[in-house]
Design brief:
Strand content: under 5%
Distance between the termini: 114 Å
Helix content: 55-70%
Largest sheet: 2 strands, antiparallel
Structural class: mainly alpha
Number of strands: 6
Number of helices: 13
Strand order of the largest sheet: 1-2
């Protein structure tokens, strides 16, 4: 056991006196920064102020963390009800990405509308940054030795996947090697980022479809990867719903074995259910908007703020009024001058 412990990575990056700085927090911070930089770069093309995205990040990250933690704790309340203080110990892990999205989207809708922008236009710009942030953020789970999959052989990790030693060693949890599901999801998300960066340049793409496509891509990967995990949030649902989830995951059994899910805890993995719903809703949403003509704006169309337009219009009105007043005054002066000349 001591040999195993010596090969594991220390979750603490460094210490500042009594304060311990965890890799988990540093990685999440790096993920947020990477997403911000991508959004700011794309925002330049649409002449959106850089401060807009920085402010969105400053209020979006806390909202996402609160949503992610609240979502996780809600489904794991039995583990926290006797020690409520641990609810705030997010450095120990235990946040849910779907909860983070809920918190971030609610915050973004309010902020974006107050700034006079269309939510879908801004969400499209932020989509690849969100997905890249999730790809980076999964390495925080790696450092904490959490969110891994079911047992596998060391040979599978070293020879089949050809993973480097530092990953293989970290997947050795108390003497048993596990699927590096963090890595699977990270790679899936990076592929998604590359797809989005290419697809959003196509002229047929309508506003909102990049963001919806991001949710669908992430959900598809999450559905199949979630089935490998042993720490899934779950609930006791109907047998027919459980049967649907198992049938959809069935193709994976040709290669992998499903991660263990305690039947006394639940029979339906919540993340899988949400993933399926998001894919179905996404398809219906895109078709509905196109059929009803609500998807008129294209991704490549200019983005304008109603607040900026109103301010510009007000300035223009003031300028026009000033010019008119100046013209009237000048006309009066000329008329007075003509009268004085006639008297002379």
């Amino acid at each position: 056991m001591d040999t195993i412990a010596s090969t594991l990575l220390d979750p603490i990056a460094f210490k500042l006196g009594p304060l311990s700085v965890y890799w988990y927090g540093l990685i999440l911070g790096s993920a947020a920064l990477a997403g911000l930089l991508i959004a700011m770069q794309e925002g330049k093309r649409f002449k959106i102020p850089q401060d807009f995205f920085m402010d969105l990040l400053l209020i979006g990250v806390p909202s996402a963390l609160v949503g992610a933690r609240a979502y996780y704790v809600a489904f794991k309340w039995d583990e926290y009800k006797h020690d409520p203080i641990k609810v705030f110990a997010i450095w120990e892990g235990g946040i849910a990405i779907y909860g983070a999205l809920i918190g971030a989207v609610i915050c973004a809708i309010i902020y974006v509308r107050r700034k006079g922008y269309n939510f879908w236009r801004i969400a499209d710009i932020c989509a690849p940054g969100l997905l890249l942030g999730q790809a980076i953020g999964r390495w925080g789970n790696f450092m904490n030795q959490e969110a891994y999959g079911g047992p596998v052989s060391e040979t599978f990790l070293r020879d089949t996947l050809n993973l480097p030693n530092f990953i293989v060693n970290q997947m050795n949890v108390q003497g048993t090697f596990h699927h590096p599901t963090f890595l699977y999801e990270s790679i899936w998300n990076i592929v998604g980022v590359l797809l989005i960066l290419g697809i959003r340049r196509l002229r047929f793409v309508r506003a909102g479809e990049i963001f919806i496509g991001y949710l669908m891509w992430y959900s598809i990967g999450r559905f199949f990867i979630e089935g490998l995990r042993t720490d899934s949030l779950a609930y006791q649902g109907s047998e027919w719903m459980s049967s649907i989830m198992n049938t959809l995951w069935q193709p994976m059994t040709a290669i992998f074995e499903a991660g263990y899910l305690d039947p006394n805890y639940g029979n339906i993995r919540i993340s899988q259910l949400i993933a399926v719903l998001l894919v179905l809703v996404g398809i219906v949403f895109i078709i509905f908007r196109r059929v009803t003509g609500r998807a008129q704006a294209r991704y490549l169309d200019p983005i304008v703020s109603t607040k900026v337009d109103a301010a510009t219009s007000a300035v223009a009105d003031k300028s026009a009024a000033a010019k008119t007043a100046h013209a009237v005054t000048e006309d009066k002066v000329n008329k007075k001058k003509q009268k004085d000349d006639q008297k002379q």
